[in-house]
Amino acid sequence: MRRVTWMIAVVMSVALVLAGCGMGKKDAGSIVKDLDHVISKSGSYQASGSMILHTGQQPQEYQVEVAFSPDHFYRISLTNAQKDVTQIVLRNEEGVFVLTPHLKKSFRFQSDWPENQGQVYLFQSLAKSIIADKDRQFTTDNDTYVFDVAANYQNEQLSRQKIWLNKKTLAPKQVQVSDANQNVMVQVNFTKFEFDAKFDKDYFQMERNMTSWNMNTLPTIAGVIGTDADHPTTGGKSAVTDKNLSATGGQSDQTAGKAQNGQKAAGAKASTDTTKSNAAASKPQSIGLVEPTYLPKDVVKQDITDMKLGEDAAVLLRYKGKYNFSLVEVRPQAKSVSLQPGDIVDLGFTIGVITGDEKRDSKKTLTWTNDGVEFRLSTGDLPTNEMIKVAMATEGQSGK
Question: Cα separations (Å) of 242 from 31, 232, 334, 375?
Fold first, then answer.
């Protein structure tokens, strides 16, 4: 009897030693199952941190805030730390919005975003990339799980990513996305991540996120309906026309003009309530010329034309060759635009919106804002990845 008791004690001691040596540690497979369980619950979360981009000539840092509700509503705020400019991406029951509050600009469109594309600061995107990569690499670092997996983002330069997860909660702590040469192009550091977060009822509503910037007036979605072109014309000359400038949806030019006239009349009635700064901001502004530093192979600049978009001075650049496209640059007055179905495009330095359907060979328009200038790149044949490259090549270029 004593011998049996002694043998049991030996076996238990050996088991404890083996557990202490790592036999009780979780492997990659069990963590993947835990991640799958977490995202399948569709619980809420709220996170904040910083994102550093190394995709341009100089690193750019952004403050990032992310919120997700069980209704599959999203709120993402990106603030450029150097320029003190914020863009907000919302998804709610009305659609997807890209807001630029300090310019009083909002775009609304229907999209499956972010289900149809990954974002480096979204927990779902990170978890799904770990789950999907059967060749994932896995290590541990103190209180952190570290996964090295394939990256799946719109920017084709981004090929792999390392993701650090908290061992206890599986919350992301850090992300590094690298190119094919293992150069870190994007780095996200989460300083706060809270599961089961609580939000106010209107937290994901467009009106709250626009008026939270203490604006005196808020344009309505009905104010301007249209997309790529507000019927551009040259001063004192015939209208500039281009097959790449045709509207991608919305009302006709005449109907849109009536809507704009109605908006002006309503704005005049309420003008006594606006501040001097807002009045100054609404005046037409001149624009410098920004030319992209990258062009696709066998594409050249055709011409440059000064033009008008409504009351706003604008510049039209046209390119021809293997691909044909146009680039409109304008400093727009405050307005809201409702677009046809589209997608968000992460350009790194800003958020863009692309409309049109490449699969159906329809015309596409990529719209983005940078330094107060709105850019509209329109084409019937330029691939989306090339549109993104051209757009990214306008960053850091001063107006001429």
Answer: 54, 10, 25, 16
Q: How big is the CA angle at 372 (ends 368 and 378), to the nearest 5 degrees?
A: 30
Q: Give CA–CA dist 271/275, Å, rounded.
A: 9
Which range, of 166-180, 280-294, 368-382, averages the lowest pLDDT? 280-294
Q: How far apart are CA 311 and CA 334, in angstroms?
A: 12
Question: Mean per-residue pLDDT for 36-45?
Answer: 91
Give the separation between CA 103 and CA 118, rounded to whole angstroms: 27
**First-residue to last-residue Cα distance in the chain:** 95
pTM of the model: 0.72
Cα torsion through 23, 24, 30, 35, rounded to 10: -140
Residue 11 main-chain phi, psi, to 5 deg:
-60, -45
Structure tokens at 137: 């690499």
CA 79/CA 129 separation, integer angstroms: 26
- Which of left, alpha, beta for 162 (phi over 0: left; psi -120 to 50: alpha)? beta
C-alpha–C-alpha distance, residues 130 and 151, integer Å? 9
d(CA 330, CA 184): 34
Report the Cα 306 to chain-centroid distance in Å: 30
